[in-house]
Amino acid sequence: MTMVDGKVCNATTGTKSTSRCYMCGATSKDFNQLDFENQINHEATEFGLSVARIHVERIHLFKSILHLAYKLPVKKYRERKTETEKYIVKERKLEIQKRFCNETGLLVDISKANFGYTNDGNTSRRFFEDPKVAFEITGISYDLIYKLEVILKTISSRYLIDPENTH
């Protein structure tokens, strides 16, 4: 099948609303639940990932990179941290937030009153658009950040990709 838009994907898969993912039927509200899992219609995967799903995956990757960067100095992710290590992580988070704000104008990982965090689609998109700055601020590998964005763009391109012939 050639490249098609979301309306064609919805019509082909019987998805009645454009606000739902044509692969699993989820809405953006469902995607925002970190523990959300839904059955995927594997026949719909030939269309590529829905824009909504790519958008959500980019946000999750962005948040994961940020949280990894905060904990990089103590080299512990989920393990129990000492009070000193907790302080180091907190200070690192503040430093990263300040640098993103000063150098890019992005407000990252800041709680909004009554409705979540500033980590939204536009923030994550801008983060991945400049992997050099993201690397310089977070200390997370430039190659990793760049390759994650390439993967997201490749998957969402809806072109048939031959993984054996990709370099």
Can you offer a commentary on this structure?
It is a single chain. The protein is mainly alpha-helical and 167 residues long. It has two domains: 6-47, no CATH class; 54-155, no CATH class. Helices cover 52% and strands 0% of the residues. The chain has helices at residues 6-13, 28-31, 51-71, 83-104, 121-129, 131-138, 142-156. Helix 3 packs across helix 5 (121-129), helix 3 (51-71) runs antiparallel to helix 7 and helix 6 crosses helix 7. The radius of gyration is 18 Å and the shape is globular. The two termini are 24 Å apart. The model has no long low-confidence stretch (mean pLDDT 82).
What's the average pLDDT? Answer: 82
User: How many domains?
Assistant: 2
Shape: globular
Beta-strand content: under 5%
**Secondary structure category:** mainly alpha
Low-confidence region ranges = none
Largest sheet: none
Oligomer: single chain
> What is the string of SSEs from the N terminus onward?
HHHHHHH
State the separation between the terminal residues, measured CA to CA: 24 Å
Q: Let me know the number of strands.
A: 0
Put simply, the count of helices is 7
From the alpha carbons, calculate the radius of gyration and give it in angstroms. 18 Å
Helix content: 40-55%
